[in-house]
From TrEMBL:
Gene3D superfamilies: Immunoglobulins
Location (main, coarse): other
UniProt keywords, alphabetically: Actin-binding, Cell junction, Cytoplasm, Cytoskeleton, Disulfide bond, Immunoglobulin domain, Phosphoprotein
Protein name: Nexilin
Domain of life of the native organism: Eukaryota
Matches recorded under SMART domains: IG
Species whose genome carries this gene: Nothoprocta perdicaria
Cellular component GO terms, alphabetical: adherens junction; cytoskeleton; Z disc
Role noted for this protein: Involved in regulating cell migration through association with the actin cytoskeleton. Has an essential role in the maintenance of Z line and sarcomere integrity.
Quaternary context: Interacts with F-actin.
GO MF term set: actin binding; protein serine/threonine kinase activity
């Protein structure tokens, strides 16, 4: 897959479904490109997550991460990364599964 010529955001590395043990940290990572540089936001079950202690936005070049230092059963569900610039919008989604401590 090649990036669109339009400059619209494009996920070079989309989100992957992931599972984590209750209480453990989790990191979602994408690589997204676009011209101009896209604005990246993270969503959980359709609600935008604010960059905070519980949901940390990390950005390094084209790599964007959402880091949860601790997970709870209620963190299970669909996460989405949305990238927007004036040429378009792109999104990637995944499911987080929380496994109970054995």
């Amino acid at each position: 897959m090649k990036a669109p010529r339009s400059g619209a955001p494009w996920f070079k590395r989309p989100l992957k479904n992931t599972s984590v043990v209750d209480g453990e940290p989790v990191r979602f990572t994408v690589k997204v490109t676009g011209e101009p540089k896209p604005q990246v936001t993270w969503w959980f079950e359709g609600e935008m997550l604010q960059d905070s202690e519980d949901y940390q936005y990390i950005e390094r070049g084209e790599t964007y991460c959402l880091y949860l230092p601790e997970t709870f059963p209620e963190d299970e569900g669909e996460y989405m990364c949305k990238a927007v610039n004036n040429r378009g919008t792109s999104a990637s989604t995944c499911i987080l599964t929380i496994e109970s401590k054995s």
